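Have a close read of the entry that follows and walk me through the local backbone shapes. See right below:
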Amino acid sequence: MKRIGLSLLLLLPALALAGTKPVSCDLGPAKQPRVAEVSRAGKIEDTYVYSLRQGKAAKATLWGGESDDSRGSEVKVKCVGDRQRALAVMGDFMSAGYPRGLVLVYDTGRRAYERFDFAERNAPGWLYLGAKDRLLVFPPGGRLETERRYLVYRFAAGAGQDNSEEMVDTLPKDDGYRVIRIDL
């Protein structure tokens, strides 16, 4: 019975937006909680305007700009990871015309939230957090050219460095990285 109850509790964060309650994810260590929250409002047919709150900051639309830029349908929101937590969001947003999403973490060393935006057909499968860069890795099959290859978005951690995108035949090695499995 305990296993069933625990399984249901693990599903709740992904299902919470099925109603009107926001999805919250504690991204910080136990002694310093850093909560991020995604909520929705303004229903028109099967779409809502999605907002994000990071910590105690004011709520802002998910994609900034006009509220319609953050109007989405078929949006999935989930708190993922074990030791290191991340908030993952993906859906069809009016501003893009294609699936779009983000992964949000809290970096305790920098004492700041870090946001990694993406626009791909498939959801990302892994986030690698390293001292010099962050890798958002997509499983094969999203774009035609990645039918059998992994797509890697590389986000530079330092100022003055460029972000990049590459295709690789295998998952990146996890040496020097903390890896968060993203299961949207």
Observations:
- The mean pLDDT is 85.
- The chain is about 10% helix and 45% strand.
